[in-house]
Amino acid sequence: MSKSTNKLIKESSPYLLQHAYNPVDWFAWNNDAFEKAKIEDKPIFLSIGYSTCHWCHVMERESFEDDEVAKLMNENFISIKVDREERPDIDNIYMEVCQILTGSGGWPLNLILTPDKKPFFAGTYFPKYSIHGRIGMMDLIPRISKAWKEQRNEVETSSNKILEYFNRSPVKNPQTIDESIFEIAFDQLNKRFDENNGGFGSHPKFPSPHNFLFLLRYYQKTKNIRSLDIITKTLQSIKCGGICDHIGFGYHRYSTDSKWLVPHFEKMLYDQAMLAIAFVETLQSTGNKYFKLCAEEIFNYVIRDMTDSSGGFYSAEDADSEGEEGKFYLWTYDEIVNTIGEESAELFAKVYKIDLEGNYPDEFTKQKNGKNIIHLEKPIEEISKNELSDNLEFSRQKLFNERKKRIHPLKDDKILTSWNGLMIAALAKGGILLNDKKYLIAAKNSADFIIDKMISNGRLLHRYRDGVAGINANLDDYSFFIWGLLELYESTLEEKYLEVALNLNETVLKYFWDESNGGFYFTATDSEQLITRQKEIYDGAIPSGNSIALQNLMWLHKITARNVLKINSELLINSFSNNIKNSPSAFTQFLCSFDYYKSNKIEIVIVDKNLSANVLKILKSIKKLFIPNKIILFKSETGENKVSQFAPFLKDYKMINGKPTIYICSNYKCESPTNDIEEALKLISNLNK
Fold it and tell me: Top-level CATH class of 7-166?
């Protein structure tokens, strides 16, 4: 590795800083790079990745740290590095290019562009030398350079065709979708369900928690027990598998095999958030305390390892340490014996499937090497008695303390508004249900941090690191943070969170709404102009911003009764209906929001003199129920009451008999107000059927 630095040394992104000592003359994405490319008449080598990406590290070691490769790159290209987590707008566009040109995508993502940002070549990982049919950098660079110099017309024609594809007119005459779409989506998921191992398809397997959120709503509507079986089987398999960190908690990115055993070891904040929501809602729906433990472990991991002193949540932890994927998480049998003793190790090894040969294959030889991924074959509650669990927990704690002495994977400590929004939503949902104040406190701390440090002139910012907030927020930032604020309001009844959510939603409508075709663009009207302005709807590793925005619009419509929000919801649905109808199971978070749109909402209003202990007791009782299509509001009869300004229909709601009073309405009619929480819960349950 070069001892001198390149231009990336001035950047904030941990990923870009990782490349600051490469001999490649990297630029960050900026005008200087494109101007230099125009002046020198060179193509752009655009490389996109993120700090916890294993194959990004591999390509860096093989190529970007190599003097021969760097020399070729510096002679023939202007090279730009992008952190996909800082600039998802850039990543979204060029990932789609890669998928169009190659049929697949992933990271590292590498493209060749003209100086005016138009792509004409794309791929993912390239080794230094060509091997096993995969072209290497030493062959690729000369070929690209030759094409640029000798076949410029063909290059320009290719790049213009790609641009034409992006800027094609949207399909008119959208297909209508109705509630039959839920049945189609369920059938698609059911057909792909792995009966033996849980999850969908073969491998690799991603948790995709929004599938479970959809199936929970489908179960509530249809009482089809098959959907609940799919959820519980898969969530238990995920919890038992090697994708779960049984020693320190939290979940790895995905499983490389069909049995959830061998993970890709990076840990992402958004996975923790969405899985926690799935566990919490499954607990609400089933009452099974197993899922309570699952959610608590995630929350404890995030609070312990992924929380900044400011209150914001960090982005990710790396898959690699000491140049080796998974090294931090793997154990030999002897290491376990040396840590907890022979007798405890024998029990631990039996339960967690540890053996002398190991169960983790070497990355290159694919042979067992004595290293083990700690995992279970079935939930621990099914194989142990209380005293056995105590012994195992004592062993786990000792192993955790021993593991802390190892060299830790890199932590990507930037704070992203979007992913924090998801985690706020999860902690807010879980905190009140699990009756643990520290979870709600963590959610409030993150929300307050973003409100204080990451809003400037009423506009959100995307990233915070080392005391500096920057980068204009995208749709995901707004949608996910508004969702987090709405969940936080419903779990605390503190008006400020609802007020900020309403204000930010107005900003989204002003700067992101497509006035011509409906739906929200990923970037604002005044954001940097890229080769196209995209609208995202696919629910992939995380939900799409439009899927969550639809939920937010309907939620805020029920609170404010502003009809424009309902009209926007209808236009959003219509703008994406063709996509949804073609493959409903690829849009399960959208279908959760569409369910919210189609269903009769239950409106619950609690009125008291102030936000008393009695009000919070009522709230906790309500939040034990799985009621996805509801709103909860609190009106105080004393002091300033902004919620009545947001929701004018509350002006006539008053306490009855001088006690906390619960109003319940649905389908344009209201039940008689009551002071009796048990009566209220019975009414809500009947309306929720």
Answer: alpha beta
